[in-house]
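Hi everyone,

Forwarding the result from last night's run.
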Amino acid sequence: MKKGSTPGQKNATFIQRLLYRANRKRIKWSEIYLATAGVLHRLLVEGRRKRSAVKRLQQDMPLSVLTSMKLEPGDIVYTPSSESTYYAGHMGIIGLDGKVYHVHPYGPVFADTLDWYLTRFYEGDRFIVFRSKLHQVGTRAAEWVQEHYEQVKFYRLQTNLLSIERNYCSKFIYQAYKFTSGLDLWGRRFTKLKQGFIYPFRIERSSDLEVLGTFYK
């Protein structure tokens, strides 16, 4: 048997031997590709994620700081995408009574104390607290929330931005500000566009809100 040949290859046809060599080359190049891609992924993706996580932990404050803060009516508590938020993000708004009002699939709406609200999330989750830059706007939004939260009957990702009955977390907060002060946290002209999805990250990016702090659990 020739060096480098395999059993049965001696009796193979010329075409079969040619295909065998081609497959061997493809396997070799596939191994090189996978090894190279793995190195690049660890260097460019995994390394960046780890550095980002370390940086967040250095910047974020412990959850105990959040629970000791004096939050004002209308403040928004936002949790970015995570397993506990079904990878969509979640947010609630502080009412006049200090409770966190939030539309939830199992609710359809809850009024939780801040301590209880935070227990709904997993270890490692982050929380970002926003406040309106305009004086008294948050208070009016909080008042509207307490007056209308019982009108929410179904948790639905509905496009009608005027509907209170069918609602979800970020849309309800959007309505609280829009219906009371005309403040459009989406940043688009409501008079021309009354349909759409108000994802939590849209409110997160609003230029009308300021960040009070970021926290980790």
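Confidence is low (pLDDT under 50) at residues 1-9.

Cheers,
N.
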